[in-house]
Amino acid sequence: KRGGCGDESAVVVVRQFRPPLDRMCYELPGGLVERDETAVEAAIRELREETGYVGVSSSEASPLLGAEPGLSGSTMRLVVLEVYEKGPASPDEGEHIDVVLLPTRSLASELRRLAEEENAAIDSRLFSLAIGLDI
Fold it and tell me: Model's pTM, two decimal places?
């Protein structure tokens, strides 16, 4: 999101309790692709449902990615969206999601700070993005 943290660009992040981790977890918005829906369409829908933000994709989805190839057959696709406006969120029943805008320029250090201050977990995909932005 451009202009999300003052004049800086920002990454839209969701924070929610994850029972398997028994703690809050910071993650990128996301979810399942529905029947007859592309990964890009699912990303736009999930972003709107979870955060209220409206996104537009300027590129295609990533190739098929193995989530944990040594442990399961779970796969995903990564979609990058430009975020322009905020409307009302409509999370699924039982989802309790906090939306956080974190500065792109200092994403890794912000995530480290939040993890320590809140004893929170950081999703590996989000932290991988943060490290990549630092390179």
Answer: 0.88
